[in-house]
Design brief:
The protein is mainly alpha-helical. Among the domains are: 68 residues, no CATH class; 44 residues. Helices cover 65% and strands 5% of the residues. A two-stranded antiparallel sheet has the order 1-2. Strand 1 and strand 2 form a beta hairpin. The longest helix is centred in the C-terminal third of the chain and has 71 residues. It starts with a strand and ends in a 5-residue tail after the last helix.
Length: 231
C-alpha cells in the first residue's frame, strides 16, 4: 500500500512499512533449492574432547567446577581414586600450580607422573619411587649375572661338542685305516696262496723226481749195451 506524504508543499507517494516488510527478505535465508553447506576441510581444527562436569577434583573438594577448570581434563569423575592419591601426597593447590606452569602438551604426562609418584610414596613412605627404582636396578643386575653365566655355559657346551666331534672323526679315521689294512693283508695272502699253488704241489715234485730216476736208469742201460768191454 502507498501513503501520500507532503514535503514542502509537494505530495509524494511512499510505501507503507507493511509493504516494505513483505517485499524485503533476509539476505542469509536459504532457498528451498540451495545446496547443502560444504563439508569441513581437514585443515580446520578438530573439536576438543568433551569434559565431564563436575570433575573428580571439584567433586572431592566440594566446590563448583568452573567452565575452564584446570583439573577437569585430567581427573574425570569416573576415576576419583586418581585424584585422591595425588591430592593426599601433593595437595590440590600444588597440582594446580604445576599444571598452570606447564604447556598443555606436557600436562598429561605430568599428571601421570605425579599419580605414580604418589602411589609409590604411599606404598613406601621412606624411599618412594627411589625404592622402586632400586629394586628394578637390582633385578636388572641379577638378570645380567644370570645371562653372563648362561653365556659361559653355552660356550663350554660348544667346546665340548667340538671336542666330541673331533674324537668321533679320529675314531672313524682309525676304523677306516684298519679296514684298509685288513683288506690289503687279505689280498696279499690270497695272492701268495695262489702263487704257491701255481708253482708246484707235492705230487708234481715226486713225479719230477721219478722222471729223473727213469732217465738215469735208461742212461745206465744204454751204457751197458754200448760198452763192448762189458763181460
Amino acid at each position: 500500500m502507498l501513503k501520500m506524504e507532503t514535503f514542502g508543499g509537494i505530495s509524494v507517494a511512499a510505501p507503507t512499512s507493511s509493504a516494505v516488510e513483505k517485499t524485503t527478505t533476509p539476505a542469509n535465508s536459504a532457498s528451498p533449492t540451495s545446496s547443502p553447506p560444504p563439508p569441513l576441510s581437514p585443515e580446520q581444527p578438530q573439536q576438543q574432547t568433551v569434559v565431564l562436569s563436575p570433575c573428580a577434583a571439584c567433586k572431592i573438594l566440594r566446590r563448583r567446577c568452573a567452565e575452564k577448570c584446570v583439573l577437569a581434563p585430567y581427573f574425570p569423575p569416573t576415576d576419583p581414586a586418581k585424584f585422591i592419591i595425588a591430592h593426599r601426597v601433593f595437595g590440590a593447590s600444588n597440582i594446580i600450580k604445576f599444571l598452570q606452569e606447564l604447556p598443555e602438551s606436557q600436562r598429561t604426562d605430568t599428571v601421570n607422573s605425579m599419580v605414580y609418584e604418589a602411589g609409590a610414596r604411599m606404598r613406601d613412605p621412606v624411599y618412594g619411587c627411589a625404592g622402586a627404582i632400586y629394586h628394578l636396578q637390582r633385578q636388572v643386575c641379577e638378570l645380567q649375572a644370570q645371562l653372563a653365566k648362561t653365556q659361559v655355559d653355552l660356550v663350554s657346551m660348544q667346546l665340548q661338542r667340538s671336542d666330541l666331534l673331533e674324537l668321533l672323526h679320529k675314531t672313524e679315521q682309525a676304523n677306516l685305516s684298519e679296514q684298509q689294512e685288513g683288506q690289503q693283508n687279505m689280498s696279499f695272502e690270497s695272492s701268495f696262496e695262489s702263487g704257491d699253488e701255481f708253482i708246484s704241489s707235492h705230487d708234481e715234485v715226486t713225479n719230477d723226481l721219478g722222471f729223473l730216476d727213469c732217465n738215469n736208469n735208461n742212461n745206465n742201460s744204454s751204457m751197458l749195451w754200448s760198452d763192448p768191454l762189458w763181460t
